[in-house]
C-alpha cells in the first residue's frame, strides 16, 4: 500500500510529495534486514580483532576454543583460503585490504581482523571469540596526527592532489587584507543504525550473499574478483539498508562469511558489533587545514590557498580531500589548493557523507567569515563579491550555479537583514546569542547503470534495477520517475531493487544514486513505450525493455556540475557551562530537480542535523598508549539526538540540471556541507571568539572565554 499525499494529476508524480513505498513494511517490522533473514543450517561467525596497534601474530591458540560448545571452526591467517585484493574495482579504486581478511600475520592497527570463530549460535560464537587467545609480537606504533608532520605527502584521490593558477606570491603581496588560519576536525564515524551484516552461502556452485550495502552490483563484482569467480557466479541481495553514509561497501564481514561458508559448506552469517564498526567500517579522517586568503579592502579575493592534511592507514591510501571545495567556490587571481596525507598505524578511513566537502567547508567557510569580519563587510556580500563566472580553476562553465539565489532566499527567510554584525552583544540571561551563515556545494555526478522495465497485461509495470535504498527514499523516487515516464500512476509501478542479478548499476554514494538510476529507468521506460506503441497486445510474460546509460553520461563532462546551498544557524552559548545550543537552522539549496519533496527534505535536514553533530558533538578519541579508541560506542561517541536538534528547515530554489533527463543533481550529501561552519560562525557572533577546532565542546568554549563588545 502506498499513500500519495496528492493523487496522480496531469502534472505527473515527480515533484509531488509521496510517502515511502516501503514505509508500511518498515514501521510494521515486515521489512527484514540482512542480519535477520532466516536460513536453514545457518552458522554464526564472530570476528576477533587485534588488541595491539602494530606487530605480528605469533600464534592463535584455537585448540581450547574448538572444544567449546557449538564451535565449528576458527579461521585465521594460518588456515584461511587465499583471497585476491590486488585489483581495481568498479569505482576505479582498489579494495581496502582490511576486507581481505586472514591473509598474513601482520597487524597494521588496533582492531585489525585476526580470526573468525564460527559456531552453531551467535552466542556460542561470541563466547568463544572472546575466549580466543592470540599472541602478538608487538612493535611501537605511531598514531600521532598533527599539522607539520614531515612524512606528509601530497596525494591524489578522487581529484588531483594539487590545483593551482596564477602567481600566489604576487597575489599575496598585493593583498590589503590577509587571513591566515588553521582549522582542525576530529576523527568521525558513520554510525548507521543498522550494523554491517552478511550471510553467505553456496547454492549449486553459485555464491549468494544477503548483505547490507550501498551497491549490490559493486559488492558482487568486488567479491567475484576477490574469490576469482566468474561475475555471474556471485549474487548479492540487499533489500533494506539501515543507513550507510559511505561505510557500506566490501568489508571484512562479507569476506569472512564467504570464507567460512566455503570451508564449512553451510550458510554463515557475520554481523559487526557497534564497537567493531569503529575499526572495520571506515571513518572520516581527522583533518588539519590551513587556509590563507588575500583580499582587497572590499573583500575581492586576490589569493585563495587551502592546504588540507588527513590521515590514512599503512595498508590503504584514502585521501579526505578537504581542499576540494575551494576549487569550485570562489574566484581569485591566484589559487593553490593541496590535499596531503600521512600514513599512520590506524584503521583505513573511507568516504563519509560529503567526503572532503564536510571538513573542507568547515575550514573554508569559517575563513570566509573571518575575512568578512576583517574587511568589515557582511559575509553574504563577501560571497557575492567572489562569485565566479566559470569554474575558478577548471575554467569550465557551470551547469547551473544558483548559490546567490540560495543566499537571497535564505537571508529573507532567516531575517538576516536585521542582524547586528557586532559580536558578543546579545544576551538572554546567561546565554549569549549569535547567528551565522556559510555556503555549501557538492559535486553532481552520475554513474553508469542498467535497468529493465516490464509492462504486464494487467496494466501494471515492474522496474528492476540494482539500486540501493539506504534510507534515502530512492525506491520511492524511482517509482515516481518511472510512473511519469510510463504516463501512469505510481500505484501501478513496482520497483524492485537491491539485487545484483538485476544488472550493473551505480552505487548509493556520492549523491549520485537516485540520479544515476533515474536516468536508466527513464531510458528503459521510453524504450518500452515505443515498443508498446507497436505491439497489439501484451503477452503473459510481459514486454520488457532494457537500458544502459554508459554512453549517455559522456554529456556531463563538458561543464562544472554542482549543487549549491546557503546555511544559516542561530545559537545560544551558555557562558556558565560553555554549552552551545543550536536554536534554529535554515538551509536553502539549489540541488537540481527535486523528485520527492518529502524524502528530499528528509535528506537535507538529515545532513544539516549531522552538521550540528559535527560542529558540537562528534569526536572519536584515540589513546596514544594503545592506539585504540576510548569508548568506541554510542554511549561515549555522542551523535546529535532529539534533544540537540531544534527547528531545522530545508528548502530549495528552482534549479534543474540541463543535461539530466529528469533534471536531477542529487541531495544526499549537500545538507551537511557548510552546516558546521554556519554554527561555528554563529558561535563567534555570540561570543566574539573564533573556534577553529571541532567539535566546539563546552570545555573549549569555557577555556576560550568571550570577547564581545558587550563583555569588554
Ligand atoms: Mo556517500 S560518503 O558517497 O555514501
Textual characterization of the structure:
β25 (621-622) and β26 form a beta hairpin. The protein folds into three domains: 23-31 and 445-558, Aldehyde oxidase/xanthine dehydrogenase, molybdopterin binding domain (Aldehyde Oxidoreductase, domain 4), CATH 3.30.365.10; 33-352, Aldehyde Oxidoreductase, domain 3, CATH 3.90.1170.50; 398-444 and 561-712, Aldehyde oxidase/xanthine dehydrogenase, molybdopterin binding domain (Aldehyde Oxidoreductase, domain 4, 2-Layer Sandwich). The radius of gyration is 26 Å and the shape is globular. α9 (357-375) crosses α10 (379-385), α12 runs parallel beside α13 and α14 packs across α15. It is α+β, with helices and mostly antiparallel strands. It is built from 16 helices and 27 strands. The strands form six sheets. The chain has a seven-stranded mixed sheet, sandwiched between helices. Strands 7, 8, 9, 14, 15 and 16 form a six-stranded mixed sheet that branches. Strands 17-18-23-24-27 form a five-stranded mixed sheet, with helices on both faces. It is 24% helix and 24% strand. The chain binds dioxothiomolybdenum(VI) ion (MOS). The site of dioxothiomolybdenum(VI) ion has 10 residues, from loops.
Amino acid at each position: 500500500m502506498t499513500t500519495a499525499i496528492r493523487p496522480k494529476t496531469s502534472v505527473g508524480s515527480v515533484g509531488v510529495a509521496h510517502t515511502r513505498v516501503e514505509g508500511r513494511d518498515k514501521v510494521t517490522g515486515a521489512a527484514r534486514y540482512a542480519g535477520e533473514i532466516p536460513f536453514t543450517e545457518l552458522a554464526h561467525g564472530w570476528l576477533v580483532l587485534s588488541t595491539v596497534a602494530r606487530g605480528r601474530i605469533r600464534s592463535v591458540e584455537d585448540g581450547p576454543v574448538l572444544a567449546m560448545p557449538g564451535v565449528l571452526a576458527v579461521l585465521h591467517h594460518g588456515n584461511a583460503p587465499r583471497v585476491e585484493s590486488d585489483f581495481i574495482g568498479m569505482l576505479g579504486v582498489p579494495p581496502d585490504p582490511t576486507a581481505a581478511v586472514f591473509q598474513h600475520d601482520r597487524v597494521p592497527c588496533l582492531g585489525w581482523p585476526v580470526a573468525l570463530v564460527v559456531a552453531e549460535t551467535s552466542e556460542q560464537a561470541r563466547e568463544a571469540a572472546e575466549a580466543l587467545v592470540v599472541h602478538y609480537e608487538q612493535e611501537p606504533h605511531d598514531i600521532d596526527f598533527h599539522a607539520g608532520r614531515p612524512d606528509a605527502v601530497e596525494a591524489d584521490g578522487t581529484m588531483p592532489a594539487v590545483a593551482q593558477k596564477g602567481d600566489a606570491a604576487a597575489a599575496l603581496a598585493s593583498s590589503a587584507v590577509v587571513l591566515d588560519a588553521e582549522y582542525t576536525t576530529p576523527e568521525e564515524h558513520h554510525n548507521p543504525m543498522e550494523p554491517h551484516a552478511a550471510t553467505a552461502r553456496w547454492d549449486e556452485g553459485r555464491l549468494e550473499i544477503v548483505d547490507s550495502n550501498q551497491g549490490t552490483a559493486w559488492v558482487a563484482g568486488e567479491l567475484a574478483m576477490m574469490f576469482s569467480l566468474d561475475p555471474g557466479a556471485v549474487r548479492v541481495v540487499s533489500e533494506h539498508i539501515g543507513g550507510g553514509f559511505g561505510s557500506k561497501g566490501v568489508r571484512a564481514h562479507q569476506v569472512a562469511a564467504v570464507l567460512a561458508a566455503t570451508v564449512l559448506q553451510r550458510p554463515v552469517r557475520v554481523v559487526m558489533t557497534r564497537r567493531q564498526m569503529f575499526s572495520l567500517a571506515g571513518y572520516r579522517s581527522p583533518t588539519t587545514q590551513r587556509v590563507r586568503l588575500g583580499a582587497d579592502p572590499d573583500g575581492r579575493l586576490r589569493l585563495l590557498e587551502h592546504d588540507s592534511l588527513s590521515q590514512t592507514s599503512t595498508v590503504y591510501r584514502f585521501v579526505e580531500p578537504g581542499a576540494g571545495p575551494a576549487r569550485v567556490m570562489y574566484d581569485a587571481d591566484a589559487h593553490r589548493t593541496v590535499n596531503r596525507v600521512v600514513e599512520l598505524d590506524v584503521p583505513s578511513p573511507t568516504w563519509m557523507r560529503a567526503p572532503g566537502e564536510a571538513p573542507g567547508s568547515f575550514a573554508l567557510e569559517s575563513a570566509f567569515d573571518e575575512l568578512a569580519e576583517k574587511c568589515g563587510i557582511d559575509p553574504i556580500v563577501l560571497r557575492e563579491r567572489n562569485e565566479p563566472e566559470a569554474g575558478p580553476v577548471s575554467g569550465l562553465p557551470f551547469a547551473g550555479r544558483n548559490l546567490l539565489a540560495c543566499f537571497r532566499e535564505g537571508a529573507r527567510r532567516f531575517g538576516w537583514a536585521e542582524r547586528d554584525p557586532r559580536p558578543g552583544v546579545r544576551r538572554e540571561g546567561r546565554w549569549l546569542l549569535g547567528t551565522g551563515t556559510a555556503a555549501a556545494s557538492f559535486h553532481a555526478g552520475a554513474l553508469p547503470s542498467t535497468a529493465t522495465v516490464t509492462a504486464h497485461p494487467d496494466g501494471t509495470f515492474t522496474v528492476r534495477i540494482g539500486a540501493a535504498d539506504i534510507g534515502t527514499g530512492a525506491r520511492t523516487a524511482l517509482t515516481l520517475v518511472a510512473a511519469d515516464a510510463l504516463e501512469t500512476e505510481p500505484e501501478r509501478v513496482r520497483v524492485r531493487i537491491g539485487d545484483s542479478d538485476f544488472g550493473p548499476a551505480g552505487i548509493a554514494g556520492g549523491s549520485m544514486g537516485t540520479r544515476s538510476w533515474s536516468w536508466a529507468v527513464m531510458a528503459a521506460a521510453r524504450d518500452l513505450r515505443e515498443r508498446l506503441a507497436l505491439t497489439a497486445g501484451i503477452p503473459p510474460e510481459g514486454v520488457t525493455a532494457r537500458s544502459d546509460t554508459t554512453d549517455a553520461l559522456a554529456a556531463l563532462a563538458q561543464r562544472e556540475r554542482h549543487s549549491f546551498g546557503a546555511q544559516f544557524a542561530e545559537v545560544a552559548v551558555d557562558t556558565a557551562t560553555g554549552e552551545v545550543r543550536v536554536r534554529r537552522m535554515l538551509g536553502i539549496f539549489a540541488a537540481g530537480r527535486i523528485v520527492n519533496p518529502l524524502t528530499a527534505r528528509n535528506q537535507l535536514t538529515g545532513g544539516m542535523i549531522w552538521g550540528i553533530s559535527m560542529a558540537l558533538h562528534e569526536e572519536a578519541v584515540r589513546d596514544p598508549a594503545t592506539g585504540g579508541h576510548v569508548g568506541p560506542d554510542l554511549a561515549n561517541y555522542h551523535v546529535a539526538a532529539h534533544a540537540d536538534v531544534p527547528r531545522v528547515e530545508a528548502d530549495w530554489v528552482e534549479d534543474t540540471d540541463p543535461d539530466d533527463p529528469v533534471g536531477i543533481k542529487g541531495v544526499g550529501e549537500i545538507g551537511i556541507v557548510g552546516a558546521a561552519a554556519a554554527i561555528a560562525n554563529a558561535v563567534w557572533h555570540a561570543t566574539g571568539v573564533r573556534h577553529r577546532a571541532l567539535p566546539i565542546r563546552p570545555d573549549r568554549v569555557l577555556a576560550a572565554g568571550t570577547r564581545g563588545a558587550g563583555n569588554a
